[in-house]
Amino acid sequence: MEAKYQRVLVSSLQGYSLYLAKLPQDQLKMVYDINKKLVSSKKFWKYSKHTIPMKAPELLADETAHACVSVFNNLDEADPTVLPTVWDAALHVLTTVQDCWFHVSAEKLVLPKLWNILRQGGQGNAATIFPNLMPLLSKIPVPVRGDTASFYTKFFSNMRQGYVRQ
Question: What is the number of domains present in the chain?
Fold first, then answer.
């Protein structure tokens, strides 16, 4: 029964994603209030692992904290079918949400997950993860990463552990 529920939920979210992708921008603006009500719902954010509307980021203007936390909370996702979407969403959030680092704790949420991914050699998904590392690193501001030498020493040390492990 749970699998059936998940299939219905995923199909519904994929349908909503298709709706956002196919609807012309002018028509999307006409139904802005309806979509805004949907993405403001607490129930919607319970299913944040499944999708994030990339075509209409203005709908998330008041929900940037939820979006940032939801995306970075799943950065260490190991499922190879979900992983590319999570990393695309992470890079998308970093480029579209100007105050993203205000909403997430790099020290408590993002960096521990990143270090773990590197130590695990990309968790079997290096082909998906590693091409996204440079864009991710370029979006981490100096105040967030702290001492540059220390940050990159940890980064490459964890990456080296992952290579040795593989």
Answer: 2
2 and 55 assigned to the same domain? yes
Residue 159: enclosing H or E segment and its boundaries? helix 148-165
State the 10-residue block means of pLDDT for the chain, 166 residues long.
58 70 80 75 60 55 80 85 84 86 90 92 86 91 90 93 82
User: What pLDDT does residue 119 have?
Assistant: 92
Residues 57, 71, single domain; the answer is no
Q: Are residues 87 and 52 in the same domain?
A: no
Q: Is residue 50 within 8 Å of 9, Cβ to Cβ? A: yes
Q: Tell me which residue range forms the domain holding 51.
A: 1-61
Measured between alpha carbons, how far is residue 157 from residues 24, 49, 121, 163 in Å? 47, 30, 12, 10
| Residue 44 exposure: Cα atoms within 13 Å on the Cβ side | 17
DSSP per-residue letters across the chain = -HHHHHHHHHHHHHHHHHHHHHS-HHHHHHTHHHHHHHHHSHHHHHTTTT---SS-GGGGTT-HHHHHHHHHHTTT---TTTHHHHHHHHHHHHHH-TTHHHHS-IIIIIHHHHHHHHHTTTTT-HHHHGGGHHHHHHTS-HHHH-SHHHHHHHHHHHHHHHHHH-
